[in-house]
Amino acid sequence: MMRAFSKLRLAAGLISAAMCTVSPAFAQDPVQQKVEAVKPRAGANPAPARAAGEGAGPFRKMVIRGAMLIDGTGAPPRGPVDIVVENNRIAEILDAGTPGLPMKQGREPRDFDHEIDAAGMWVLPGFIDTHVHGSSADKAPDLGYSYKLWLAHGVTSVRGVNLAPWSVSTVEKARSARNEIVAPRIFDYQRVGQGWDKGPVRTPQQAREWVRWAAKNNIDGIKFGIGPTEGPEIFKAAIDEAKKLGLGTTAHLTQTGVAMMNARQAGEAGLGTVTHFYGHMESLLKNGAIQDYSTDYSFNDEQYRFAEVADIWDDIYEPGSKEWADYLKAQKDQGVTFDPTMTIYAASRDLMRARNADWHNEYTMPQLWDFFQSSRENHGSYFFDWTTKQEIQWRNFYARYMRLVNDYKNIGGRVTTGTDSGFIFKTYGFGFPEELEMLQEAGFNPHQVIRAATMNGAQTLYEPKGITDPPIGMVRVGKLADLVIVKENPLQNFKTLYGTGTLRLNEQTQKLERVGGVSYTVKDGIVYDAKRLLADVAAMVAAEKKRMGWPEHGVPRP
């Protein structure tokens, strides 16, 4: 099938071989990393130290008073309750009164050091984003930009795949664990061969050796690509070794390798998580294991790559067919987690909406905005001549993909929430509420969405470590105090979780007003004012605009 853009040719260099591929500029030598940091796509700068006044606590005893509780397990909301936190652990959850009646004043405990009046508010577990990359040097001055945007949206734990080069990620993970920086809890996944000084991994035995090195060097898991340099035998060897040593695994089954190993085959080999959609549809092709690409396709031309990936939607077995059901059952039997990351490709089905989102003017860093613009060099900036037909193909593709994810949930398969922001007009943090919205669009009820964003993510991160009762992901006595406190009921409208809130007509004034946004994010018992975090980010963005000679308000338009 010939496309309208078929005469476009690659103008400059090779584009990354897969979404989230680590750039060759990520040198192993820390000194060289500093030199490379001034070049495009050159690693990431550490976040600044947590300053005085950034977050309050942890406290010997803190009480969150009178809230409605959504505990993350799928249980219905209950309340009002008082949540007692001692240091960084939930110590008690106490009934605070009867709905419809005034709450009793002066409730115990009274020996608190800090109290939050959460009457009329909602408390949830801290959100878990299972697919992130930190704000690299070509997108923001330092990692603090992405950290604060994640926390401002209630994200208290992230799985970096990778967050940054290993030498940076491992330090940032430790700094976050000690709360020396304003950052979510970090789980560090790296690609096979990253971080060590023995060069590329070319054999299964080298893969095993690297996994053993990773387990000793603060790495939590492996991100696979399955492409030209990371074939099935290396994949299988690394997974086998990872299981022995308690490392997690996730894979982006890129088009350059999916014909050798689709998602079903990866699940049979022991893969923990399939991230993105790659590999699912290829497991369901009616005419064999290889998609029918157009004859002038080039993977390195990203408009070909991302346009044609959606064309597979009508080449697969129908939803609800025996083949469809067999695939889902096989993945569930293997215990594979689906991490859909629908938000990151949403611009493909509605480019104008993504490009004109409410938050870009104030919260999108100018370097990141430049990165988003159509470019032969920047990964994910593939809208060279995007057409109505391509958007329709993506809408059709998403209808099938959403059905697949929802059907998997319905048979008891685990689904998590990941965003992959920093590409394709997705600003860090803001992609998370959109992922929740898209899970609801797929057919999840709001309670199922919240469980995907909390408990399911926690189980996915901790099970490889042999921990079946994770310390995060639920609001229960004994769990870590990772919490989100909001004024609006998110079950009623996930749009209220965006940092910019959502518009609602005030019936008294008959004027639109902006409501929502997270009020407080609690990580390890430390209370962060989410609105202040957003103000910090806005100030960072304004300073960069001034430094670069941009207008104070707005972003440049082509």
Folded structure, characterized:
52% of the residues are buried. With 558 residues, this protein is an alpha/beta fold. The strands form 3 sheets. Strands 1, 2, 3, 4, 5, 14, 17 and 18 form an 8-stranded mixed beta sheet that branches. Strands 6-7-8-9-10-11-12-13 form an 8-stranded parallel beta sheet, sandwiched between helices. A two-stranded antiparallel sheet has the order 15-16. The radius of gyration is 23 Å and the shape is globular. The chain has 16 helices and 18 strands. 30% of the residues lie in helices and 17% in strands. It has a domain at 126-473: Alpha-Beta Barrel (TIM Barrel), CATH 3.20.20.
Question: Which keywords apply here?
Answer:
558 residues; alpha/beta; TIM Barrel; signal; hydrolase activity, acting on carbon-nitrogen (but not peptide) bonds; Metal-dep_hydrolase_composite; Metal_Hydrolase
Task: Summarize the entry for a quick read.
The protein is an alpha/beta fold and 558 residues long.
Number of helices: 16
The average pLDDT score comes to 91
CATH class of the domain at 126-473: Alpha Beta
Radius of gyration equals 23 Å
* Low-confidence segments: 1-41
β-strand amount: 15-25%
- Name of the CATH architecture of the domain at 126-473: Alpha-Beta Barrel
Percent helix:
25-40%
Distance between the termini: 30 Å
Report the major sheet. 8 strands, mixed
**How many β-strands, per DSSP?**
18
Q: What global shape is seen? A: globular
Secondary-structure class? alpha/beta
- For this structure, the CATH topology of the domain at 126-473 is TIM Barrel
For this structure, what is the CATH homologous superfamily of the domain at 126-473?
Metal-dependent hydrolases
GO molecular function, one term: hydrolase activity, acting on carbon-nitrogen (but not peptide) bonds
Signal peptide: 1-27
Keywords: Hydrolase, Signal
Domain Amidohydrolase-related: 122-526
